[in-house]
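Exercise 3.2. Students should predict the tertiary structure of the chain below and write it as structure tokens, then compare their answer with the key that follows.

Predict this chain's 3D structure.
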Amino acid sequence: MKIELSDVLDELVELQEAEDEARAEVDLLQEELGDVSQWTDEQSVAWTNAWEDWRVPTEELDMALNYYAEKIGRDRGELEAEVRKAAGLDPLPVED
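Answer key:
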């Protein structure tokens, strides 16, 4: 049984949204903390924890995109662009 994009789009959009939310947290924290050379140990730990919280959904999204692109028979970059569009984001340029 071949998997269709419609079968997995909601799952991929949820993963994309989780990745975006976690990335926004890292960006916000980094903006709040300012110059990395001035961070305390506690601030470094807070940023590292936020980065880890972003890394996990990023890896999950990446693995899911690779897996479903192969199962659906689509180019991975094109699939990612469709997922980003469905999530209300600007699609990344597709590399040739």
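Discussion points: The mean pLDDT is 92. The helical segments are 5-33, 41-72, 76-86.
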